């Protein structure tokens, strides 16, 4: 699999970039894009291609880490770090979420952001 993982401090820059891209694509203002649609990071419906990654770096000074995961390897993603994965072969995903004292504030932030999702129809209630 090919992973792109970004620093948690770049989350708002990535979010703003995705909102701007969605607004341009739909021909609406950025303000309308924010009002009408849920958080693009939490929706997990956008994949940043190489062009998007280049634009993020040039326009927002955001650069992530690209990690190629080989069979038998595990990837640990820090709390609140935006990430995406492209499966390059058949695979099975096994995920385990855990809290550490060092990341509790970021986990609470994610919980609050998920509660704010307006258009999401699934369960967004999280218990810490």
Automatic annotation (TrEMBL):
<dbReference type="GO" id="GO:0046872">
    <property type="term" value="F:metal ion binding"/>
</dbReference>
<dbReference type="GO" id="GO:0006357">
    <property type="term" value="P:regulation of transcription by RNA polymerase II"/>
</dbReference>
<dbReference type="GO" id="GO:0000118">
    <property type="term" value="C:histone deacetylase complex"/>
</dbReference>
<keyword id="KW-0479">Metal-binding</keyword>
<dbReference type="GO" id="GO:0032454">
    <property type="term" value="F:histone H3K9 demethylase activity"/>
</dbReference>
<keyword id="KW-0539">Nucleus</keyword>
<dbReference type="GO" id="GO:0000785">
    <property type="term" value="C:chromatin"/>
</dbReference>
<dbReference type="Pfam" id="PF02373">
    <property type="entry name" value="JmjC"/>
</dbReference>
<dbReference type="InterPro" id="IPR045109">
    <property type="entry name" value="LSDs-like"/>
</dbReference>
<dbReference type="InterPro" id="IPR003347">
    <property type="entry name" value="JmjC_dom"/>
</dbReference>
<protein>
    <recommendedName>
        <fullName>JmjC domain-containing protein</fullName>
    </recommendedName>
</protein>
<dbReference type="GO" id="GO:0031490">
    <property type="term" value="F:chromatin DNA binding"/>
</dbReference>
<dbReference type="GO" id="GO:0003712">
    <property type="term" value="F:transcription coregulator activity"/>
</dbReference>
<feature type="domain" description="JmjC">
    <location>
        <begin position="1"/>
        <end position="115"/>
    </location>
</feature>
């Amino acid at each position: 699999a090919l992973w792109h993982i970004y620093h948690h401090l770049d989350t708002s820059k990535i979010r703003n970039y995705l909102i701007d891209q969605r607004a341009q694509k739909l021909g609406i203002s950025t303000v309308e894009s924010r009002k009408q649609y849920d958080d693009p990071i939490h929706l997990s419906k956008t994949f940043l291609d190489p062009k998007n990654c280049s634009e993020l770096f040039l326009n927002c000074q955001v650069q992530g880490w690209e990690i190629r995961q080989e069979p038998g390897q595990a990837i640990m993603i820090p709390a609140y770090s935006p990430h995406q994965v492209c499966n390059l072969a058949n695979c099975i995903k096994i995920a385990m979420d855990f809290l550490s004292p060092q990341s509790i504030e970021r986990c609470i932030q994610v919980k609050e952001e998920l509660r704010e999702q307006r258009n999401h129809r699934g369960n967004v209630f999280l218990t810490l």
